[in-house]
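Comment thread on ticket #2218

A.B. wrote:
> Attaching the input chain for the structure job we discussed in standup.
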Amino acid sequence: MKDKYRITLQIILVIALIIGALVFKVIPEYKETQGSSDTYIKVDEYKDLVELKINNHTNFALVTTDKLITNILFFDNTSLVLYNQDIEGTSFENGIKKIINILIENNYLKTNDFITITKYHNKTDQIIKNEIVKCLNSLNASVNIIEEKNTIQQKAKSLKIEEADEKQQLKAIEYASKDIVRKYKNNLSGQQITQKEDITEENIRDYTDNVYKKIEQYVRQNEIINQDVNTTTLDITKIPANKRGNLFPDNNSWYYVQDKQVYAYISITVDDVNYSYCYQASIDIYKKGQC
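C.D. wrote:
> Ran it. Output below, let me know if you need it in another format.
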């Protein structure tokens, strides 16, 4: 009987240690590598999409629920001044204030400019318009507002997306946005990774771990049970591996989901040197190199 109690206590202790590691190490490290714009749209929970364009440039869209701006989709490089500015997750009032101020500070919004507000589902666009007008009035800024209508299907078609289902179209639009972010970050002079300083055999698994954690989060959020390599809905090559958002898995990378567990091969190539790890259903079960 004593042996039974001792084994039970040992199991409880192990579980407590695992939970402690998650709370105090894994989760904080994950959050540190993820900016406000690096999350993914919860397609079953969003209520509306409201697209904004200033003078035919600085084009982006706000994904909203009834009360919050949850995500931003970027459609050109100038809109990336809003990237990772902690706008996502804020109220309409606070989010619009941040957006307007950032655009003005970067000279992307000036007096007498035109703001085109494109409506998609007619649920939160009027609230957003009102917040824009209120914010501009408080700044004594006068701009012209134009209102248009569009659909997810038409937007997808304009981006040459061929998905038939609206949810898949929205995901594909999001991937197009993240591709703009990725390409912009990769081309930023002066902000490229100093390869010799940042990438070593000793720290590369920190980067592949970051990618694996983000895949796991995506699988949990979307309640994915099984997906094979050819039908995965998250583009692994668009997942930032570092906090700066300018290091990504290469095209040899892949993942699949079996019984809610993620199996992945994450490959990162820097200066023609390849680093890779194979994960088998857990971040703690891995090996260096090919699976």
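A.B. wrote:
> Thanks. Noting for the ticket: The radius of gyration is 22 Å.
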